[in-house]
Design brief:
alpha/beta; two-stranded antiparallel sheet; 11 strands; nine-stranded mixed β-sheet; 18 helices
């Protein structure tokens, strides 16, 4: 009997590892911990549980914390209260959702520090829904806590009905070891394999995954407007084929990293500072080359207050290298989604599920694909596109040719192309909404003005610098 039991345990381990569930030894299971007497060292028991889990699941490596000795004994009472919650309706994604919830709340409480690794989930869902990562190799070279990789797996599982571990492979890179562990745990609790593919490294100088031309999908929310990148270290680097910008700003280094990681059929979606869409000088030259390569496919303007760390709006960029030799080859779709949002609280906004579906369906209609109508976006789509066929809508979306973009100085700012929607009658005028619009525009102009001030100051300093 003991031999049969041991064989059964090995079989369970094989099955669970194949499906990327965590194998939990007896001493690491919730029921075992909940049955401990209150006088026992519960922190020590949880530490032992973490060690047992790591021993049985090699992929977790050093991702699990081991500092539970600091927990006070009354924490066991909290666990016993949680144990009263019925578990018969818990789905396979429940623990992943709980982990995601705590990540979001931590980001909100920690401000700038927390926002370094957390991208608001509605923006993540929109990026994933637009590039549709349904197969192959997926890379996030600024992966943070791994929200985009996790959401890709969730989409494959829930919308396509496949086991994501059978059809996609995820890869990530982060410069902070603690954030790498957060990402590994996020993948683990969502049942996504590939924890060892999440690696620590400075993406500007280290390409741990040998990414050039190797990935089907790339997605990221990189840090904006980073300065101090060592230009000597990246000279001649194939990740930057259009050259390094002369300005001390890494936005166009990131943009090139995403572009070069794609294979000839690859798609990318990423968050970028608004200023990059209209940046001048050497950045404009890099942007021109990207546009002329027919890589840029969709640009979406996002309103303010979506992030926990900054109130400024941002832009989502989308590359699609598979659009060459298609009717979209010389076109770019611009969407102004700044006035689409759900107010979460006084300081924060997000997209509802229906709004994410509506915006991503605009892209599908542009691609002449069938709309997805699964979470309530049907009413918005039918109202705007009654025939389920794409059309330009003033103030919302416009397909623009490369010739038109060249005429606009190679700008990728959606506001330049989409135009303004018809105003309602005067009696329907919403003063608060209009004031908010003007404030957003002012914030954008202030950021651009500060950037120009810095550029002018640098140029003046160079002119005045003595030539010996």
């Amino acid at each position: 009997m003991q031999r049969e039991a041991a064989g059964g345990a090995r079989w369970v381990r094989q099955i669970t590892r194949h499906s990327c569930a965590l194998y939990l030894p007896e001493t690491a299971r919730f029921d075992y911990l909940i049955d401990r007497p209150e006088a026992e060292d519960i922190g020590g028991a949880i530490n032992a549980a973490m060690k047992a889990i790591a021993d049985e699941n090699e992929e977790l490596g050093g991702a699990l914390p081991r500092n539970y000795n600091s927990l006070e004994k009354p924490i066991l009472r909290v666990l016993k209260i949680l144990n009263r919650i019925p578990r018969n309706n818990i789905t396979e994604d429940a623990f992943g959702e709980i982990y995601q919830y705590f990540l979001g709340n931590f980001a909100q409480k920690e401000g700038q520090k927390g926002g370094e690794f957390f991208t608001p989930i509605s923006l993540v869902k929109l990026i994933v829904d637009v590039i549709e990562p349904s197969y192959g190799r997926i890379l996030d070279p600024a992966c943070g806590a791994g929200g985009m990789l996790v959401q890709s797996a969730i989409r494959v599982r829930n919308k396509l009905g496949f086991d994501p571990n059978q059809v996609i492979s995820v890869y990530g890179q982060e410069k902070v070891d603690g954030t790498v562990k957060l990402c590994q745990m996020n993948l683990a609790v969502h049942g996504v394999s590939g924890l060892r593919n999440i690696r620590e490294g400075n993406t500007y100088y280290q390409d741990i995954h040998n990414s050039v031309g190797e990935f089907d999908f790339v997605m990221a929310n990189p840090p904006f407007n980073v300065n101090g990148v060592d230009r000597e270290k990246i000279k001649g680097d194939p990740h930057y084929p259009f050259g390094a910008p002369t300005t001390d700003n890494a936005n166009y280094l990131w943009i090139q990293l995403f572009y070069t990681a794609l294979n000839p059929k690859g798609r990318a979606g990423f968050v970028m500072a608004n200023s990059a869409s209209d940046a001048r000088g050497s950045e404009l030259e890099i942007r021109r080359q990207l546009i002329e390569k027919r890589a840029v496919d969709v640009m979406i303007a996002i309103g303010s207050n979506f992030f926990y760390t900054v109130t400024l709006p941002c832009t989502l960029w989308f590359f699609d290298r598979r659009k060459l030799k298609t009717p979209r080859e010389d076109k770019v779709l611009f969407i102004d989604a700044r006035h689409i949002y759900r107010q979460v609280d006084r300081a924060h906004r997000e997209f509802s599920e229906a709004q994410v579906e509506f915006i991503s369906n605009i892209v599908r209609l542009y691609r002449e694909e069938k709309a997805e109508l699964t979470v309530g976006g049907s009413e918005m789509l039918t109202e705007t596109f009654p025939d389920k066929v794409y059309r330009d809508v003033a103030g919302l979306c416009k397909i623009t040719t490369l010739a038109e973009i060249e005429a606009q100085g190679w700008s990728l700012n959606p506001g330049r192309y989409v135009g303004v929607a018809e105003r309602k009658e005067a009696e329907d005028f919403d003063f608060a909404a209009r004031l908010e619009e003007l404030n957003e525009e002012l914030e954008i102009l202030n950021v651009e003005a500060r950037g120009l001030e810095e550029t002018i100051a640098e140029n003046v300093a160079m002119i005045l610098e003595p030539n010996f």
